[in-house]
Design brief:
mainly alpha, single chain
Length: 81
């Protein structure tokens, strides 16, 4: 009868990876939050606030940066000492 070596279950990533991933999720959520609003209650009234710097440039940039941080957290090797 052969003895099966015990396998210790481990997480796929280390704690540092998960912290960076949570930061990325926060940056992405902030970007989507900054995109909200700017609409008008009356469809016959135009609101130029939808074309503000915050919604056109800043928010999408934050979302893309957040996705970049998420990719970095996935590719980061947490086993290095």
């Amino acid at each position: 009868m052969k003895k099966v070596p015990s396998t210790k279950k481990e997480f796929l990533f280390k704690e540092k990876n998960y912290r960076i991933l949570l930061l990325a999720i926060g940056v992405i959520a902030l970007g989507f939050f900054l995109m909200t609003g700017g609409g008008s209650d009356d469809p016959n009234v135009f609101n130029p606030a939808i074309f503000s710097f915050q919604r056109i440039r800043l928010a999408p940039t934050l979302v893309l940066i957040g996705f970049g941080i998420a990719m970095y957290s996935i590719l980061l090797n947490g086993n290095k000492k």
